[in-house]
Write a structure and sequence with these properties.
The structure holds 2 protein chains of 2 kinds. By secondary structure, chain A is of the alpha/beta class. Chain A is 31% helix and 32% strand. A 6-stranded mixed β-sheet of chain A has the order 5-6-7-3-8-9, with helices on both faces. The chains are: A alpha/beta, B mainly alpha. Chain A binds chain B through residues 15, 29, 34, 37, 40-42, 44, 100-117, 119, 121, 123-124, 127-128, 130, 132-133, 137, 140-141, 144-147, 149-150, 173, 196, and chain B through 1-8, 11, 21-22, 24-25, 28-29, 31-32, 35-36, 39-40, 106-113, 179-182, 266-267, 269-271.
């Protein structure tokens, strides 16, 4: 109690600029508990009738029999007003639980959160949209659900419609919308909330890339107006661009808290070292020892330049002989899969694997823009249904480099970090007959020109609407 | 600037203020349910009239004509309709609000607002149906030249009572349904069963005197009696202890429903 009192005074002194104060926050889910409930009322009745005493006792001594899972474990954080904070971590690290507690969807098991200011959370785009209702009706419904008053929605209605770019379909039921239109409308409503604190969860995972940019732009301008933003994403580049501070959650605890660049770099490094031990399939006696990325000189690295060779080296230990396994290696960018090597397609399957060994795959001159990427590895046995291992983040790497070295000279080179990452060599032919070719091949800086990728003008237009 | 404190024990300190802040959501959710209900139907809102009309016809034939139940000098269709309006409201609200939390689980797991809004607005939806069906009653009363007695002024009290009963039961069932989906099977049974144990198709007076009190433990007995008395006058006998019991039961239902709902509400998102 004493410590409580002390904490409170601490907080009070900081109150002027503290937006969110989290003290010793924990959330427990009891897994056994859930399962018992699944059996429904019959189970409760039955066990109560059969042996009332032990049923009663079991209710008293719950903790003995059930598996507790601490989604959040003693988390303390201080977030000041105007900060834009990224929250990263693997699935199950507690990111979503934290956001759910902050948005009051669920309650913490222990701990206190103090929030100063009107808070709005966007854990999903289009919560409460109803398929049968028209766009217009859904704007009002969704707005009300997100906490806007009818007067407020009426006032912002035109702005919302304009932002969503679906004026002509506003009186069409949303079930007739394409998924892109749906997301645009939904985000448009959310973008017109005016909270002091905004909580966003992986909202950008949906929608096409140009719309994602628009969302990011909106969130950026929101942040610039001095409001507090909490942003959960797997899109590291988005976090890097948007956030100044970043929090890395691991197993429900605060693992690292610091500048976005530092935390993200450390996160990348740790994941590459983490693979071993995680990827064991006892059914096949197969262990994925490690996955290492090398450059064409054989050095172990996880920074590449556009146009470098990327070597993915898979070390395994197969205790049992596995005949004709199938490997697939994918490079995943912020917007999804970029390219893969897949033995299912090319047919170059080894006759068998047994004991320890290595399989290497070299991607020649990777045509990737400077962004962050992860490597996905899938190993199957003889037939495609025999999945041995499917692992999404076996390795991470960054592509870095100054695009000017590659002949890029557009005004919006910074947008390259958000553009579609794969660049197939291309050639412009202009009205006056000049042709210029563009490729991610390093060239002499005196050599001729290149334009930016096709998405840039679009990005410019979007910036202007804001 | 107000400070919001989230803590294990007392997260919901501002519950009632939030309920007020989200007051428009009552309207919006009810409006959504009403809009959606009759989308892509041919007859549309007409169903609110056709349903009670057909049920009235059947009950009149079964109880009045075939069963030859006493009508106490009242036109039998009127007698049935006066019982059916509150019953259909109550049973409709019970099914709708019972399901309301589960069918809105996407909202519950993704956005915060007092969950009571969901359950209440589904009762409101049924209430709108009740009002529309009420028009049919007005027409029928004109048809039979049945002038409402002075007691009609007490009708709002009974409407409030049936609303309270629906809300109380709704809170209980919706909160229970979150954890025990068994109620998905129990509710339709209750609705079916309730139609026969409530005096919808007949008058309370046919129940033997000594079972009267026992019978009145069903709160719908007092409520339906009240409706008939307000609309058809002294020709229908009202059993006063029944009304008193109904009133007490409704108050208890609301109080306990609110208690249970509030108690379980904080874990809805984890369990649903």
């Amino acid at each position: 109690m004493l410590s409580d009192a002390l904490n409170t005074t601490n907080v009070k002194s900081d109150m002027s600029n503290s937006a969110i104060t989290i003290e010793n926050l924990s959330k427990r889910y009891t897994i056994g508990h859930q399962r018992a409930k699944g059996d429904g009322i019959r189970h409760a009745f039955e066990s109560a009738i059969r042996s009332p005493i032990s049923w009663f006792r079991s209710r008293r001594q719950k903790k003995l029999e059930q598996v507790d899972f601490w989604a959040l474990n003693d988390l303390s954080l201080q977030i000041s007003q105007g900060e834009v904070i990224g929250i990263i971590g693997r699935n199950g690290a507690g990111k979503s639980t934290l956001l759910k507690i902050l948005s009051r969807i669920t309650v913490p098991t222990t701990g206190v959160v103090r929030i100063n200011g009107r808070i709005a959370s966007l854990l999903e785009v289009g919560t409460g949209f109803h398929q049968e209702l028209t766009g217009r009706e859904n704007i009002f419904l969704n707005g009300a659900i997100l906490g806007m008053s009818r007067a407020e929605i009426t006032r912002k209605f035109d702005e919302i419609v304009e932002f969503s770019e679906i004026e002509e379909f506003i009186d069409t039921p949303v079930k007739r919308y394409s998924s892109g239109m749906y997301v645009r409308l939904a985000f448009a409503v959310a973008a017109h909330l005016e909270p002091e604190i905004l909580i966003v969860d992986e909202v950008l995972a949906v929608g096409d890339s140009s719309f994602q940019k628009k969302c990011l732009g909106k969130m950026g301008s929101f942040a610039q107006s001095g409001r507090t933003v909490l942003f959960v994403s797997h899109n590291m580049e988005a976090v890097r661009t948007l956030c100044n501070r970043c929090i890395w959650l691991k197993d429900g605890r605060l693992h690292q808290d610091g500048s976005a660049d530092d935390v993200i770099d450390d996160y990348f490094n740790s994941i590459s070292n983490e693979v071993s031990g995680h990827c064991v399939n006892p059914d096949y006696g197969f262990t994925l020892e490690k996955v290492v990325l090398r450059n064409s000189w054989g050095e172990e690295v996880n920074q590449f330049r556009p146009g470098d060779d990327l070597v993915v080296e898979v070390s395994y230990d197969a205790q049992k002989r596995i005949g004709r396994p199938i490997l697939a290696i994918g490079v995943i960018g912020p917007n999804g899969s970029c390219f893969t090597s897949n033995m299912l397609l090319d047919g170059n399957r080894p006759e068998f694997v047994e004991g320890t060994g290595q399989i290497k795959c070299t991607f020649k001159s990777i045509p990737l823009l400077p962004q962050s990427y992860t490597v996905k590895l899938v190993i199957r046995a003889e037939t495609i249904t025999d999945l041995i291992i499917s692992y999404r983040d076996v390795a991470l790497f960054n592509v870095v480099g100054d695009l000017a070295d590659y002949g890029y000279k557009g005004e919006f080179l910074t947008w390259a970090s958000r553009s579609t990452p794969v660049v197939v060599p291309y050639e412009w032919c202009l009205p006056d007959g000049t042709t210029t070719s563009v490729a991610l091949i390093r060239q002499d800086s005196s050599k001729d020109t290149a334009t930016s990728t096709s998405e840039m003008p679009q990005a410019l237009a979007m910036h202007e609407t804001e | 600037m107000t400070e919001l404190v989230i803590e294990a024990g007392r997260t919901e300190r501002e519950y009632w203020r939030d309920l007020w802040r989200y007051r428009e959501l009552f309207y919006f959710l009810a409006w959504r349910d009403l809009l959606v209900r009759y989308k892509q139907t041919f007859v549309g809102v007409g169903w609110s009239l056709i349903r009670p009309m057909l049920t009235m016809l059947v009950l009149t034939i079964v109880f009045g004509k075939l069963g030859k139940m006493p009508s106490g000098g009242m036109p039998y269709p009127l007698l049935v309709l006066c019982g059916m309006l509150p019953w259909q409201f109550f049973s409709g609200a019970m099914s709708e609000s019972g399901n309301s939390l589960v069918s809105n689980s996407n909202l519950i797991s993704k956005v915060y607002f007092p969950r009571l809004v969901i359950t209440t607005s589904s009762v409101i939806t049924s209430f709108v149906d009740f009002l529309i069906s009420g028009l049919f009653l007005v027409v029928l009363m004109f048809w039979y030249h049945s002038k409402p007695p002075a007691g009609v002024l007490l009708l709002p009290f009974f409407v409030l009572l049936v609303f309270g009963a629906a809300l109380g039961v709704g809170m209980w069932i919706s909160a229970l349904m979150v954890e025990y989906r068994d109620f998905r099977f129990i509710v339709p049974f209750l609705v079916q069963f309730g139609l026969y144990v409530s005096p919808v198709g007949f008058q309370t007076s046919i129940v033997p005197e000594r079972f009267r009190l026992l019978y009145a433990l069903n709160p719908m007995v007092g409520i339906i009696d009240g409706f008939r008395w307000c609309l058809l006058g002294p020709r229908s006998s009202v059993y006063l202890p029944g009304v008193a019991i109904a009133l007490i039961e409704v108050i208890l239902l609301i109080a306990s429903g609110l208690w249970y709902f509030r108690k379980t509400e904080r874990t809805f998102a984890d369990v649903i």
